[in-house]
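Appendix B, example 12.
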Amino acid sequence: MTANEFNDRLIEMKSNLQRFAMSLTTDRDDALDLVQDTYLKAITYRDKFVDYSNLKAWVFTIMKNTFINNYRRGVKENTIIDGTKDLYFVNLPQDKGFASPESSYAEEEIEKAINSLDEEFRLPFRMHIEGFKYQEIADKLNLKIGTVKSRIFFTRQKLMNILKDYNN
């Protein structure tokens, strides 16, 4: 295949390449940049293309790989590496500020409201706010996962009703 035939076939694929690039990037400008990068690589590495094989598949593979490499490069650029020698200070819990008497009172009221609930609602809710996942709660309490979800939902509703004075 001559260089002119190769270029003509590439140009014929432009609309297909743009649609594929748009599906990958979901941004018009990024998609156009990706098409341009794909054209550049296809023309640069034309000698790697085997005549009479599937040019469309070859070019689409170039585009997909270019997109993946750009994505990985972007993730690496946005990764922050902490070079702190003493990581103890990095992992210290952050101070949440001054605890006002009102906040202590509100916390006591919330605890009182939670404790006033029936155990069948209180127990799954407490486990949920302690960080257990729905499936873990269901397994520990020998309940179906749907039952756990509904009990937590209804507990939230009851607490919002009991503590409506605290709702902003």
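The chain is about 70% helix and 0% strand. The domain at 101-166 is CATH 1.10.10.10 (Arc Repressor Mutant, subunit A).
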